[in-house]
Design a protein that fits this description.
The complex is a heterodimer of chains A (385) and B (382).
Chain A (H helix, E strand, L loop, with lengths): L1 H8 L1 H34 L29 H34 L4 H15 L3 H13 L8 E4 L2 E4 L2 E4 L1 E2 L3 H31 L5 H19 L6 E2 L2 E3 L2 E3 L2 E3 L1 H27 L3 H9 L4 H31 L3 H4 L4 H12 L2 H30 L5
Chain B lengths: L9 H7 L6 H5 L10 H8 L4 H27 L7 H6 L6 H12 L8 H17 L7 H19 L16 H27 L3 H16 L2 H15 L8 H27 L2 H9 L4 H16 L1 H14 L11 H9 L8 H31 L5
Helix pairs in contact in B: 6-16, 7-8, 9-10, 9-12, 9-15, 10-12, 11-12, 12-14, 12-15, 15-17, 16-17
The chains are: A alpha+beta (385), B mainly alpha (382).
């Protein structure tokens, strides 16, 4: 008896006991929910399992990177939705970063007016729900004039209620080769930068890194382009009848989502950039000046590496937020993952599987972005010995 | 840039990712904007370098071209109390759509004669928010007062007692839905988030991994998918014959979602407590719960008040998403108001109005959280 009391008083035994209780409690609740769900599903005559993924979807998707038709499977429909989500997120991340950095730096400007402009932008954008902003952008897109009275934003780029129309290059085999040359040039430039750094570190002599790298990026594609006969032609959008022909276009839904996500996230990124720059003590700049570095060198070698260390972790979560926020596309009818999954769930009734798949996909995306940013963060992190 | 605007501690820095106290912009006005030296101020802050002069002139040009049309649209050419035909004829904003539709925007489909009830509920609620903002009132009775106000709100909204007619909650809409969802979800999420944060810090691996799993799952998926799950899967979870209505389902989804984010904020507070505190409690012979309730949480929670307010702001904005699962919140009501064929051209006015509503709430709360943060750091600065 006393042994039992002693055992119950030991922290280790108690720990095991608590954990056993907690886990079994969780399992019991989980089992209860699952059994309820199964009963309810069988009562309603809804099938379970992922067999529905191979059946014909039977609905059209407005825009798609892959060739998709209503006769394709649900699985393909979901992949199309996923690609749409990834496309809009990737483009919006780029725009939001550029805009956010610009606004963040502008807010720190020694110019009072510029600072105020940036502050007003940030405070407006961050304090109004994203969904409201998206709805507003979408309403604006929808109430633009019809193609016949489209606004010509810049020559040959038209904005109408059918979306944004822009010219494209006429494809030619030479373009592919030039692109390949560009990639090879970039790889060459990376090697040159590495060699230049090593050369400087071992010999102490400067190496013309920048000109050499630039030449490596620019010259090969231009040479290939010229060698293939400089095939240079535009496919211009032309108004014929009620709509445009030629060129390429993005839909009003995509445009509204892209603008909304970029502008909203830029407000948050601006604040992150601002606090990151402010986190570098002014003494660092002064020390750089004392060492005789030029302002450009101080920014690149002293301020930015330290500011990035503060900026990157919250920036990661903003990129994640942007990707997750792209799910609001469902409200304005852009066929992203959520919207396609929702349609599939409504048609098949297999809500549990559909929602579970959607959540797993978002989790995987989140983990990938988080993993990449952690890797980058380790790269810029302070090296402590 | 003044050095004072550099956050002093890493905790303040971490908090500043959410809401940066905007001292920097104040600091750029170094007391020079007195009546005596406006020219000196302008010279230092607007025309100090050639580039800044160009930028200032560009800004003035933007203002010159942007302000007059906006003022004309908002004020001078606006129609305040006219018919839709007068609006169509006018060049400015048509604020009469707000005058006509404000009851719909604020209270949705709530029975028209009874709309003083949601109005009173919202007024009570906003007053209570104001009272809670005053630090002198941070006493135990405040919790009781909140409980009373919430009961009063329930009575007002549902009715069925005290001679009020019953209004089913599928008739509710507009501002009360937005306010109630955000407040209830943050209130319910708070205790849950403390448990989750403690669980995440626990030394027991099974409890820790379950809590981490839940938190990371919720933080890894978009709110829309959680709301979908709540609206379509919760009914399946329940035994036969038991149903919960749409509002409660959305509330449950929002609560779980908010709890995960709040748990991370609380964890920040827990991690900021020096280890010596916990060791001292152990040395005094306190048990786990005594240590947690008496030593750790009182210090940690004080530290996380600003992040909690920030979480409340984002929760307030997020409630607008319930429109996707078919609830009638402020944004849905605004959208419905723009679909009336008679007033269809005047969507901008309605969205400006709804946006302003959200903005007033969120901006004042974010300013409040910055003030709280400065108050909290007041004694930490040396």
């Amino acid at each position: 008896m006393s042994k039992l009391v002693q055992a119950l008083n030991s922290a280790r035994v108690r720990g095991w006991l608590y954990q056993a209780l907690f886990v079994s409690g969780t399992l019991a609740v989980g089992w209860y929910l699952v059994s309820n769900t199964l009963t309810n599903l069988s009562k309603r005559g809804v099938a379970t399992g992922f067999g529905f993924l191979n059946r014909e979807a039977g609905f059209e998707i407005g825009e798609s990177l892959l060739t998709y038709a209503a006769s394709d499977t649900y699985l393909k429909a979901m992949i199309v939705g996923l690609l749409n989500t990834l496309t809009v997120s990737a483009v919006a991340v780029i725009f939001a970063s550029i805009l956010g950095v610009a606004i963040g730096v502008a807010r720190l400007s020694s110019n009072w007016m510029v600072g105020r402009f940036a502050a007003v932008f940030v405070e407006t954008v961050r304090n109004v729900p994203l969904l409201l902003q998206l709805v507003v952008w979408y309403t604006i897109m929808n109430r633009l004039p019809s193609p016949r009275e489209a606004l010509e934003v810049v020559p040959h780029v038209f904005l109408s209620n059918r979306g944004l129309k822009y010219p494209t290059f006429v494809e030619h085999a030479g373009h592919g080769w030039a692109f390949l040359a560009l990639i090879l040039g970039i790889i060459g430039a990376i090697l040159i930068v590495r060699y230049g750094r090593k050369h400087r570190e071992t010999t102490g002599k400067p190496f013309p890194t920048l000109p050499a790298a630039l030449a490596s990026v620019i010259l090969p594609p231009v040479a290939v382009f010229v060698a293939s006969g400089a095939p240079f032609a535009f496919d211009l959008p032309v108004l014929t009848g009620f709509n445009f022909e030629g060129g390429a276009s993005v839909s009003p839904e995509f445009t509204a989502l892209l603008i909304g996500l970029s502008v909203y996230t830029a407000g948050f990124i601006a604040e992150i950039v601002r606090s990151g720059i402010l986190a570098v003590p002014h003494g660092q700049t002064e020390a750089g000046l004392a060492l005789g570095l030029s302002p450009a060198h101080i920014l690149r070698l002293v301020i930015l590496p330290q500011a990035l260390r503060v900026i990157v972790p919250p920036l990661t979560s903003q990129y994640l937020n942007l990707t997750k926020n792209s799910s609001l596309a469902v409200a304005i009818g852009y066929p992203d993952l959520v919207s396609v999954t929702n349609t599939s769930a409504n048609q098949t009734g297999q809500v549990v599987e559909a929602v579970a798949m959607m959540m797993v996909v978002y989790l995987v995306i989140s983990l990938c972005i988080a993993g990449f940013m952690n890797w980058y963060n380790r790269k810029v992190a302070l090296v402590t010995r | 840039m003044s050095k004072d605007s550099i956050p002093q501690s890493t905790a303040a820095l971490a908090a500043s990712f959410e809401e940066e106290p905007s001292q920097a912009s104040v600091a750029t006005l170094p007391g020079g904007m007195t009546a005596l030296k406006p020219f000196g101020w302008a010279k230092n802050n607007l025309f100090n370098t050639r580039a800044n002069t160009v930028l200032t002139l560009v800004c003035f040009a933007i203002l010159w071209f942007a302000v007059p049309p906006v003022v004309n649209w908002v004020l001078l050419n606006a129609v305040w109390l006219g018919t839709s035909d007068e609006c169509r004829a006018a060049a400015g904003a048509c604020w009469s759509i707000i005058a006509v539709k404000h009851r719909l925007i604020f209270f949705g489909t709530y029975p028209y004669e009874e709309q003083w009830r949601p109005f009173l509920a919202c007024a009570l609620f906003v007053a209570m928010l104001g009272v809670s903002g005053v630090r002198a009132f941070w006493r135990p009775w405040l919790v009781g007062a909140w409980a009373l106000v919430l009961v009063a709100m329930g009575v007002l909204m549902w009715g069925g007692v005290l001679g009020l007619t019953h209004v089913a909650n599928d008739k509710w809409g507009g501002l009360p839905i937005t306010l109630m969802l955000s407040v209830f979800s943050i209130t319910l999420a708070f205790p849950l988030s403390i448990l989750l944060a403690l669980g995440r810090q626990s030394s027991l691996p099974a409890i820790r991994s379950l809590c981490v799993g839940f938190i990371e799952l919720m933080r890894g998926v978009p709110l829309v998918s959680v709301l979908f799950m709540a609206s379509v899967m919760f009914p399946l979870f329940l035994p036969e014959g038991v149903t919960i209505d749409k509002l409660l389902r959305a509330l449950a989804g929002l609560t779980l979602f908010t709890a995960a984010y709040l748990a991370e904020a609380v964890r920040g507070g827990l991690q900021a407590i020096p280890k010596g505190q916990s060791e001292a409690a152990d040395a005094l012979g306190l048990g786990y719960w005594q240590k947690t309730m008496l030593i750790i949480l009182p210090q940690a929670l004080r530290m996380v008040i600003p992040p909690i307010v920030n979480q409340f702001i984002s929760c307030f904005k997020d409630t607008s998403l319930v429109t996707i699962v078919g609830l009638y919140d402020l944004l849905t009501a605004a959208t419905v108001a723009t679909t009336d064929p008679e007033w269809r051209p005047f969507f901008a006015e309605v969205y400006v109005f709804a946006g302003l509503m959200f903005w007033i709430f969120c901006f004042s709360m974010s300013r409040y959280s910055q003030w709280l943060e400065r108050m909290a750091n007041r004694y930490n600065r040396r």
